[in-house]
Amino acid sequence: MTNTALITGASRGLGLALARALGAAGWRLVLTARGAEDLDRAAAELGATAIAGDVTDPAHVARLAAAAPSLDLLVNNASDLGVTPLPHLADHPLEAFRGLLETNVTAPLALIQATLPALRASGGSIVNVTSDAATGAYEGWGGYGATKAALEQLSNVLAAEEPGLRVWWVDPGEMNTRMLADAVGAHEAAGAADPAKVAAALYDLVSSRPASGKVSLH
């Protein structure tokens, strides 16, 4: 039986690289991202199902769950950096922070809730992509880091509540992505890890299915 994976933020960066690795291994893929053009290009390359939309939209979450009635792997990779240049907490716009919480914490939980019946049926796995900003005191990263800390604790509790699943909260380290370039500049981002190499390590994690827990890929 073919395994099925649902990946958010799949049109570029780590999400696309992981989709390529899973696709090469014969997985069926349901991919989502906000940008329809890039997502359609990725889906055409991989023979995947593309459903463009915003993960904070409940109707979109429902469409994603309906597209994967049989599901073995959920990857919550979509994330928002927030205001750039990254502000100190004293100056962080509260409305922007609320938006970060919605995208980086509430949306992953909504998709988990929507897909849990299928994941329980398969004894499947969940990957929540986090960051070392969840624990490190990096100036300017307080808003984003707070959301990733919340996602880590959500994952930790979920693992305890769903012992039949594998739940991993994964810190991929710095990668040469558009998000990192927006945060630190293209020159500095160019020295970070290739998302394809990180995706290879993440694929090994998914394939070997160790016990639930926090995983660092750097």
Automatic annotation (TrEMBL):
Its EC number is 1.-.-.-. Keywords: Oxidoreductase. Belongs to the short-chain dehydrogenases/reductases (SDR) family. Coiled coil: none annotated. The keyword Oxidoreductase applies. This is SDR family oxidoreductase. It holds the Pfam family adh_short. CDD domains: SDR_c. It is an enzyme of class 1 (oxidoreductase). It comes from the Bacteria. GO terms for molecular function: oxidoreductase activity. InterPro entries: NAD(P)-bd_dom_sf, Sc_DH/Rdtase_CS, SDR_fam. It comes from Nonomuraea salmonea.
